[in-house]
Input
Amino acid sequence: MEGDPAMTTAAPALVPGRSCGSCTLCCKLMRIPELDKPRLEWCPNCDVGKGCRIYSERPGSCRAFHCGYLAFPYLDARWFPAKARLVVAFQATRLAIHVDPARPAAWRQEPFYRQIRDWALQGARTRRQVLVWQGNEVIAVLPDGEKSLGAVRDDQLIITREKRGPDGRMRWDAFVAERDDPRFADWDGRPAPLRDSGRGT
Ligand code: SF4
Ligand code: SF4
Output
């Protein structure tokens, strides 16, 4: 989709009429730095399927987070995270799809897979990474393919870049680097490195 707001807008307005409702999936799948809550574990403050027990006092990263379903009108009811079993999270340099390990292949179903591939194509133009988190395993979805990066620690960087192959053609690649790697000290964050911030996207 040309001009997809998911790839051009850092903080879009919420879609009128949409709410979390019975969904609490991000409270399981995503890391919450302020609470030391790792990915894939329910937040102890979560009333599963109902909401946050400390809503008025929830951490800043929870306040700031709105998933793609809440933010982008073209992600229709099929993208409701509690049903789709995936949470779309976006940052200036990254679009991440967090998949419920109970349904690890959910992102390969339609309409999700086609849209994720389209985001990856757009990411080449807007310099934004597209990553799928299946638990702690990361798959970089590249404009010309995919690359499994295995388990990635929160203190590591994920680098995506184009490079010239032996046949002279440019291809996309992704790899993991240590955060203190001097080769990436001046990286501008587009499309990588993906420094974790806020709600662990
Ligand atoms: S994943 Fe989206 S809809 Fe579900 S609780 Fe989180 S912000 Fe709300
Ligand atoms: S503090 Fe509340 S909003 Fe934040 S992860 Fe826990 S249950 Fe969810």
